[in-house]
Design goal:
There is one protein chain. With 142 residues, the protein is α/β, with parallel strands linked by helices. The chain is built from five helices and five strands; from the N terminus they run E-H-H-E-H-E-H-E-E-H. Helix content is 35%, strand content 20%. Strand 3, helix 4 and strand 4 form a beta-alpha-beta unit. The N and C termini lie close together (12 Å).
């Protein structure tokens, strides 16, 4: 059974409440319940972590070393400047997929660059909350 940790960064605890036209009207807890069912059907054990603090995200990535087979990360605004998260992903050597609910390439200019992507095996962006399920689908086929 593959073990996968979903890590969400800043402000993603407000899904379902913030900018519904961009992020939708479902909370991540609602989505996580659906993802749990999907993961179980694909023989995956799924865990979830969210923090608005960079250091806590880095600590969680470190905890994944030797314990998780994959990480799915939505770094939120840390995407654009957190070389520390980039370094943590490289250090733990856990294959990581970066996801974004919105299409970061069609938004503000500063959102178009990810410093995290080069540390990841892939990126899924702009397909709404389906990005998490699509990442899990990819992992299930490995």
């Amino acid at each position: 059974m593959k073990k996968v940790c979903i890590i969400n960064g800043p402000n993603l605890n407000l899904l379902g409440k913030r900018e519904k036209e961009i992020y939708g009207d479902k909370s991540f807890e609602e989505i996580f319940n659906q993802l749990q069912e999907f993961a179980q059907s694909k023989s995956m054990d799924l865990s979830y972590f969210q923090s608005n603090h960079e250091g806590e995200i880095i600590n969680k990535i470190h905890e994944c070393m030797g314990d998780m087979d994959y990480i799915v990360i939505n770094p939120g605004a840390f995407t654009h400047y957190s070389y520390s998260i980039f370094d943590a992903i490289l250090a733990v050597k856990v294959p990581t997929i970066e996801v974004h609910i919105s299409n970061i390439f069609s938004r503000e200019e500063w959102r178009k660059k990810s410093v995290i992507s080069p540390a990841c095996i892939g990126i899924i962006s702009g397909l709404g909350l389906d990005v998490y399920r699509l990442a899990l689908l990819h992992i299930s086929q490995k």
